[in-house]
Design goal:
Blueprint: E1 13-15, H1 16-22, E2 24-34, E3 47-57, H2 59-69, H3 79-103, E4 107-109, E5 115-117, H4 122-170, E6 171-174, E7 180-182, H5 183-193
Antiparallel strand pairs: 1-6, 2-3, 4-5, 6-7
Length: 194
Amino acid sequence: MGIHCPQCDSANVQALHLILDAGTTHHSGNWSGYVAGADANGGTGGFLSGSVETTSKTGLAREVENFIYKGCPENSNNLHGLIWTGILAAVTWGSISMLMEFLHPKQKCDYTGRCITEDFPFFALMLGELPFFLIAIYLLQKLKKWVAVRNNYNKEYPKWLEAANYKYLNYFLCKKCGSFFDKNDAEDFNSSEN
């Protein structure tokens, strides 16, 4: 006796891996050609070539794929953006600090050679230092979130992948009622009826 759907007892069922594999088509090809004519520098055309790869899926294969691979843990890939934002903040802070030093030096000397040391004005601190510290706090919070997401991904991804592989190999789709079910559940259901 074959596998029957535990929901509607239909024998019109199919393994998910067969639906996904049969409903996915991979295409690849190469192209080449010669471009005739002249460019602005007086050169002539040339030979061009390239390759193309595409993948297409049927609607049913896409639905099965969504069922199998749903719930993938979030993977944080925006570390490059954080690094570049930090570099930009450091360069901006350095530029503003140099500008403030140039506009308001800490030592002023008069024509007699006497030099007077002055405190750095409060507005220079507000303009140069405070925004940098606010950006640094923001970046540290983002980095902390990135580390937490990354650690969660590294912990949860192997479990999710194992569950997805199990679904791929052991789940079926009932074509009568549209339900997904584990073949072990179907075997328990079918053996309890006999």
